[in-house]
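P.,

For your records, the input lines for the assembly:
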Amino acid sequence: MRNRLKVLRAERDWSQADLADRLQVSRQTVNALETGKYDPSLPLAFRIARLFGLPIEAIFEDEA
Amino acid sequence: MACQKMTRAAKRYLARLLPAMTLYVLVLAGADWLFHHHPPSGWLRYALAVAPAIPVIGAIAAMGLYLVEEADEFQRTVMTQAMLLAVGFTLATTTVWGFLETYAGVAHLPGYLVFGIFAAALGPAGPLVRWRYR
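C-alpha cells returned:
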C-alpha cells in the first residue's frame, strides 16, 4: 500500500530511527512500511496517524 | 536481526534459546556416554532416552513465546513467515527422505533430526523473508 510516511518524516527532519523510536517499533519496521511492502495493522496505523496529527487516509493511499 | 538493534522479545528469545541449546549438547553427551558405558534398565532407560528431548522442547517453547511476546508486529510477521517456510522445507524434505528410505533403501533418518532440519532451515529463512520486504 502506497503511503506518505517518507515525506512526512522528511518534513519533520526525522531519521527512520527517530520515527521508529516514536512509534516504538524497530527501524526495519519503519523501512518496510515506507517501501509499502508491509501494511500496518489498524492499531499501528492509528498510532502513526496520531503521531503525525493526520487522518489515516491522509497518510495511506487506498489503491483499490 | 544480527546487525540491527534487537527488540526486547528477540533478546529474551536468545536468552532462552542459547541456554536450551547448550543444555541440549550437555544432556545429549551425558546420556550418550551413559548408554555406552553404564546402560540403565527399566524406567530409567526411558527417562534417560527422553532427557535430550527436553531442552529441544524448551527451544520450541522459546520460539512460541517469542511470537507471543514480540510487540513489533512487523518482526512478528517476519518470524511467523520464516517459521512457516522452515516448516514447509522440513515437511517436504522428510517426506521425500521417507519415500527414499522405503523404496530406494537410503539410510534411516532418525526422528530426532527433524528439529535439526527445521532449525537449519529457519536460519536462512529469516533473512530471506526480511529481504522480500526491502
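Two observations worth noting. The longest helix of chain A spans residues 42-52. Chain A touches chain B through 15 residues (CB under 8 Å).

Regards
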